[in-house]
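Journal club prep, notes for RB
We'll compare a predicted complex against what the paper describes. Inputs for the calcium ion case:
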Amino acid sequence: MRISTLSLLTAAIGISIASTAQAAKPDAPYLSNSEFQQCLDGLKNSSKFRGVDSFTFNNYRPNEPDPSVIQSLNYQPEFQKDVWDYLSALVDKERVEDGIRAKRQWGDTLRQIESRYGVKPEHVLGVWGVESNFGQTLGKKPLFESLATLSCFDRRQSYFQGEFANALKIVQRGDIAPSDMTGSWAGAFGQTQFMPSTFLELAVDFDGDGRRDLVNSVPDALASTANFLDNRGYRSGEPWGYEVKLPDGYWAASDRKNKKSISHWRNQGLTLANGGSLPYDLNSAGLLLPAGIDGPAFLVGKNFDTFYSYNASENYALAIAHLSDLITREDSSKTDFVTAWPTNDPGISRQQAKDIQQALLDAGYDIGGVDGIIGDNTRTAIQQYQTSRGIFPADGRAGQNFYRTIVGSTAPSRTQYTNQYGQPAGARPLTPAPADRMGQLIQRQTTIAPSAPSYSSPAPANTVRYRRVVGGDGVTRLVRID
Ligand code: CA
C-alpha cells in the first residue's frame, strides 16, 4: 500500500511492444472547481462527516481539486512484469543492507514489540522495507487534496469520502501534524502506508507520547505494523514458510490456500531447498509456485498470508518474506533463491537500474533523471535504443542482458542459469502461475476499461500483469491480471 511500491511496480509498466503503442496513462481530466466546491459543501453536512468539526473541515478543505489523482485512478497499467523483475527490485543488496542496519538500530524497540504482539522483528522489518523503504519513501501527495478530489469525482466516491473523513479525524485528534498528511495518490500514508481507516483501526502509540504518529515515530510505525499482522492472524513463533525442492517429476499447481500438514508434504517427497528434511514448525502450509513448476518453490504458512493481507499480491508477500529471511541471516551477498528463476535474463537491482539510466542519459536519451525506477520514460528509451541497434525483442525491458549491453562488460556476469533439473533455464515450457484469487476478486469489484495492447508476439506464458486498485479494505494494491 505504499507509494514507493506502487511507483516501483507501476514504473515497470511496459509500453506496448508494437510501434503503435499508446501511453497507458490517460490525460488528466478537466475538473470543475465550482462543482468541486459544491460537492465539498454537501459532504460537510453529510452523515459520513459526522464527527468532523467544521473548524477542521473548513481549515483543510482544498481550494481546488487535483486532477492527477483521477488520472491515477484510471491508470490501466499495460505493463508486463515477470516475478523475477519484481523481486529483484524489491529485494536487492541495498535493501538487505538497509534492513540489517535498521535491525541493529531499532533492536531494543523490535524486541519490545515482539514481546507485546508476538511478531518476529525481521517480519516487521520486511514489511517496513517493502512498504516505505524503511521510512525513506512516504509519498508526497497532499492527502486532503487527493482524498477530497476522489470523494467528488469519478468512481468509488463513497469509499473515498469515508477515507477523507477519516483523514480529517486523524488531524482533529492530533495524532499527525496536518503538514505531515502526505502520501500516495489514493491516500496511503506514513511509514506503514496505512489508509486513514486502517490507521484509525490499527495504529498504536508505542513511544508513549500520546500520539499515533506513523510519519515521524519509528516505534509507532513498527508497532502498528506488528499490530496489523497480529490482527490478521499472525502465529507467534512460526516462520512464514521456506523455499523447498520438489521431487523429480513432481507436478502441482500453485495453491497457497490449500494448506496441508508438513507430514503430507514430506510424504509427497518435498524437502528443504538444500535437501534437508522439512521441519515441523508450521501448523500447515500451502505450495506457492510463483513462476510455475520450474521456478523456485515454497511452502507457506499462515504468516505468509498475513503479509499477503498487507497488499493482496503473492509476489509482494514473497518480497516481504524473502527480505525478512535475508535480514535474519544478515547476509546481503546473495539475494537469489536456491532454485533459479526459469529465465536466462534475470532482473536487475535498483543500483543496476540507475546504471542503465545513466548510460541512457550518456547516450543522449532524455529520460529525465536517474532514480533507479524503470518507468515509462526509461522503457521508451530502452526500446528506442534496442530498435536502433537491432536488438530483438525491442521490448523496453531492463534485465541483466540489457544491463550488460548498455553498461558494459564490466557488469557482474550471471551467465548460466539452470533450473532444478539442471537444464538451461527456460528450456521447458512454463506452467503459468495461477490467478491470484484475491486479486481476481478485487478486479471484479472494479471497473476495468477494455484494453487492447498490441504485441508483436504473444505474451510469454510466464508473464504476469498487474493493475493498481484500491481494495474494499482501503488498501492500494497491485493486483495480478491473468
Ligand atoms: Ca507516539
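Talking point for the session: Confidence is low (pLDDT under 50) at residues 2-23, 410-482.
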